[in-house]
C-alpha cells in the first residue's frame, strides 16, 4: 500500500536511508516483471534473466536505462494531450519505477506540469473514470475500527519516512474531489522523490475518505469513493486522530505532511498535531515559506526593507493566512517590528471584502490577527478590490482566492499608480484559476511589475525586455524541508527551521544577479535547491535541539555530502536472489525485498 508495493527490512532500515549497493529480491518470473519496484524490463542482464527465471519472458536484446529512457520519451511525445501524457506516465510508474523517475528527472521542466499542477488537477477530477490501478492507502471513515490495521499493513515498522495525507476537501483550487484526492498525495510524493531524493518505497500517500459534498461525484455512477455527504464534527475528528495515532504507533519516525484539507480543518489540525509529532501543512507553511522567499528577493530588487512593505492578500484561506503569518513573523525577526505592528502592515480581503472587525465570528482563527477596524474603510466600498488598493497602497499583492481573473486591469493599474515596482503574485492553481495572467500584468503595469505565479508560465515581454516569471509553488520548498526533517529525524518542525528554509531558498534567487531573471530559482534545478534547503533545516534542527539523528556532520561541506549520499537516484541496482522461504515478510508476499534500492 505504500506508494509502491515494497517495504524494507528493519535491519537496514535506518541509515543510510538509501542503500546504493545490491539489494535482495525473492520474486521471479512474471511476478518480478509485475513489480514496479524491481522491474527493469529489457534492462535485465543475461545473468539476471537466468537467475530470476525471466528467459523467454523478454525480447532478446538487453538495453541500458538510457536506451529505455529514449524509448519512453518517444512514447511520451506521441501523446499530444497533457492528460494522456499524465496517464502514460502513471502507467510507467506502475510498471517500472526507476524508469519513471529517470525519464522525468531527465525532462523535469517539461514534465513537471504534467505530473503536478495543472494536469494532475484534471486527472484528479477524472479519477474514477481514468482509474486502472490503485496507488496509496485509502481509509474509510465508516470503518474507523480498521484504520490501525490498514495503516500497519502498509509497510514494516519504521520503514516509512514521509507520509502525505489529504481528506480531499480543497484540492489545489478545484475544491472537493473526494477519493480522487489520492492523486494529490501521490503527486506530492513523486515530487518528494524527484526533487529531494526521498526513497519512493519509504513514502506513503493516504486519502482519508470522509465522503464528498461534490454533487457531480455523488451523481456519477462510476464514482469510486464513499457515496455520502462529508462527515464532519466529532466523528471526523476521531477519524483523523485514529489515523495520526496509527502513524505514531507504526511509523514513529515518519514525517507527516497534510495537504489540501478544507479551510475549517487545515489550520485547526495543524495546531492540534504540531506539538504531537513531526508534521507540517504544505498549504499553510510551505506556501508561506516559498512566498516569503519570493517577496524577499522582490524587496531586494526594489531596494526596500521587508519591515516597510505593505501587503494585501486576496483570498484569506489556508494559503493566504499562511503567507500572512510567515511574512509577519519575518517582519518581526528580520525587521525588528513587534508582532502587532507587523500584523498592521498586512491586509486581508476575502469574499466579504476587506476583513474588518464587525465580521466577528465569521472570521477564522487564521484571519483574526489581521482584521482592521471598520472605520478605517468607512469611505470606500469594502468589496471593491481596486478601491481597497487605492486606500491601502500595497507594495505586494498576493492572490490565493481561486477567483480566476480577480486581478483586473483596473486593479493592476491602481496598484501600479502607487508604487514603482508593484509586486504581484497571482498564486491560485491550476492555471485556469490564476487571478491574472503574467503577460497582462506586465502590460498593465508598463513592464514595472515583479511577478510570480502558482502554476508555470512562459516568460513575458514588454518594450523589448524579457521577464522570467518565477513559479512560486510550495513544490520548490517542501521537498527540501521534508528531506531536512527526515534526515535529521527532527522531533518537530520549528518556526526557526522554516525561516532557515526561506533564507536558503531566497539566497538562490536569480533576481539577485539580474532583476529580470526570476524571483525564485528555476524548478529544473530543484534537486540542488532541495539539498541546500535540507542542509539549512538540519543545521537549525541541531541548533534548536530537535534533531534526533546520530552522526549529523557539523562541517558544512560534510553535511552536504551526508545529505547527498542519502538521496535516492533513479538507477538500476544489482538484484541478489534470496530464497522466499527464508526471506523477510516482504519477500514472501506482496512485496519482495529486505532492503531499499
Ligand atoms: N502556489 C502555491 O504554492 C499554492 C497555491 N494555492 C492555491 O491557492 C488557492 C487557495 O488555496 P487554499 O488557501 O488552500 O484554499 P482555501 O479554501 O483555504 O482558501 C481560499 C480562500 O479564498 C476565498 N475566496 C474565494 N473566492 C473569493 C473571491 N472571489 N474573492 C476573495 N476571496 C475569495 C475563500 O473564501 C477562502 O477564504 C488555490 O487555488 C490553491 O491552488 C494553495 C497552496 C499553495
Ligand atoms: C500547490 C498547492 O499545494 C496547491 O495549489 O494547493
Ligand atoms: Mg496544496
From TrEMBL:
PROSITE patterns: MALIC_ENZYMES. Keywords: Metal-binding, NAD, Oxidoreductase. The keyword Oxidoreductase applies. It comes from the Eukaryota. It catalyses: (S)-malate + NAD(+) = pyruvate + CO2 + NADH; oxaloacetate + H(+) = pyruvate + CO2. Residues 284-542 form the Malic enzyme NAD-binding domain. Divalent metal cations. Prefers magnesium or manganese. (S)-malate binds at residues 429, 473. The active site is at 116 (proton donor), 188 (proton acceptor). Residues 93-274 form the Malic enzyme N-terminal domain. A divalent metal cation binds at residues 259-260, 283. GO terms for cellular component: cytosol; mitochondrion. One of its GO terms (molecular function) is NAD binding. Its cofactor is Mg(2+); Mn(2+). InterPro entries: Aminoacid_DH-like_N_sf, Malic_enzyme_CS, Malic_N_dom, Malic_N_dom_sf, Malic_NAD-bd, Malic_OxRdtase, NAD(P)-bd_dom_sf. Belongs to the malic enzymes family. This is Malic enzyme.
Amino acid at each position: 500500500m505504500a506508494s509502491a508495493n515494497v517495504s524494507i527490512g528493519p535491519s537496514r532500515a535506518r541509515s543510510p536511508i538509501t542503500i546504493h549497493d545490491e539489494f535482495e529480491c525473492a520474486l521471479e518470473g512474471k511476478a518480478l516483471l509485475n513489480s514496479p519496484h524491481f522491474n527493469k524490463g529489457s534492462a535485465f542482464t543475461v545473468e539476471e534473466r537466468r537467475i530470476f527465471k525471466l528467459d523467454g519472458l523478454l525480447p532478446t536484446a538487453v538495453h541500458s536505462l538510457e536506451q529505455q529512457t529514449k524509448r519512453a520519451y518517444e512514447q511520451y511525445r506521441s501523446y499530444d494531450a497533457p492528460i494522456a501524457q499524465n496517464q502514460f506516465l502513471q502507467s510507467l510508474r506502475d510498471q517500472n519505477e526507476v524508469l519513471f523517475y529517470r525519464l522525468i528527472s531527465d525532462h523535469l521542466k517539461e514534465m513537471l506540469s504534467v505530473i503536478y499542477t495543472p494536469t494532475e488537477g484534471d486527472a484528479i477530477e477524472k479519477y474514477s473514470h481514468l482509474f486502472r490501478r490503485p496507488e496509496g492507502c485509502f481509509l474509510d471513515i465508516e470503518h474507523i475500527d480498521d484504520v490501525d490495521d490498514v495503516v500497519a499493513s502498509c509497510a514494516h515498522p519504521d520503514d516509512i519516512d514521509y507520509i502525505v495525507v489529504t481528506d480531499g476537501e480543497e484540492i489545489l483550487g478545484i475544491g472537493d474531489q473526494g477519493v480522487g484526492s489520492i492523486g494529490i498525495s501521490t503527486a506530492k510524493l513523486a515530487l518528494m522523490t524527484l526533487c529531494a531524493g526521498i526513497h519512493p518505497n519509504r513514502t506513503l500517500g493516504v486519502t482519508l475518505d470522509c465522503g464528498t459534498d461534490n454533487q457531480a461525484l455523488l451523481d456519477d455512477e462510476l464514482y469510486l469513493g464513499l457515496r455520502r455527504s462529508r462527515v464532519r464534527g466529532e466523528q471526523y475528528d476521531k477519524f483523523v486522530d485514529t489515523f495520526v495515532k496509527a502513524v505514531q504507533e507504526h511509523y514513529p519516525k515518519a514525517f507527516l505532511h497534510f495537504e489540501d484539507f478544507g479551510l475549517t480543518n487545515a489550520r485547526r489540525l495543524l495546531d492540534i498535531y504540531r506539538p504531537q509529532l513531526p508534521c507540517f501543512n504544505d498549504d499553510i507553511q510551505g506556501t508561506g515559506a516559498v512566498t516569503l522567499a519570493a517577496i524577499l528577493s522582490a524587496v531586494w530588487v526594489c531596494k526596500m526593507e521587508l519591515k516597510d512593505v505593505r501587503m494585501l492578500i486576496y483570498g484569506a484561506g489556508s494559503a493566504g493566512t499562511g503567507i500572512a503569518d510567515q511574512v509577519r513573523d519575518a517582519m518581526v525577526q528580520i525587521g525588528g517590528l513587534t508582532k502587532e505592528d507587523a500584523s498592521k502592515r498586512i491586509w486581508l480581503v476575502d469574499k466579504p471584502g476587506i476583513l474588518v472587525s464587525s465580521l466577528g465570528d465569521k472570521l477564522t482563527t487564521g484571519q483574526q490577527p489581521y482584521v482592521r477596524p471598520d472605520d478605517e474603510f468607512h469611505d470606500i466600498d469594502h468589496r471593491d478590490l481596486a478601491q481597497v488598493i487605492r486606500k491601502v497602497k500595497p507594495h505586494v499583492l498576493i492572490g490565493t482566492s481561486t477567483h480566476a481573473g480577480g486581478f483586473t486591469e483596473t486593479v493592476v493599474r491602481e496598484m501600479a499608480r502607487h508604487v514603482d515596482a508593484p509586486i504581484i503574485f497571482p498564486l491560485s492553481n491550476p492555471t485556469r484559476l490564476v487571478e491574472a495572467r503574467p503577460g497582462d500584468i506586465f502590460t498593465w503595469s508598463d513592464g514595472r511589475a515583479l511577478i510570480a505565479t502558482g502554476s508555470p508560465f512562459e516568460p513575458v515581454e514588454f518594450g523589448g525586455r524579457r521577464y522570467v516569471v518565477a513559479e512560486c509553488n510550495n513544490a520548490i520548498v517542501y521537498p527540501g524541508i521534508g528531506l531536512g526533517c527526515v534526515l535529521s529525524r527532527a522531533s518537530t518542525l520549528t518556526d526557526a527551521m522554516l525561516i532557515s528554509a526561506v533564507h536558503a531558498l531566497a539566497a538562490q534567487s536569480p533576481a539577485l544577479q539580474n532583476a529580470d531573471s526570476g524571483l525564485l530559482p528555476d524548478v529544473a534545478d530543484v534537486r540542488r535547491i532541495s539539498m541546500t534547503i535540507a542542509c539549512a533545516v538540519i543545521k537549525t534542527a541541531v541548533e534548536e535541539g530537535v534533531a534526533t539523528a546520530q552522526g549529523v556532520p557539523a562541517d558544512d561541506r560534510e553535511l552536504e555530502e551526508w545529505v547527498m549520499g542519502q538521496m535516492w537516484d533513479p538507477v538500476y541496482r544489482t538484484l541478489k536472489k534470496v530464497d522466499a522461504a527464508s526471506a523477510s515478510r516482504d519477500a514472501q508476499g506482496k512485496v519482495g525485498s529486505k532492503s531499499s534500492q
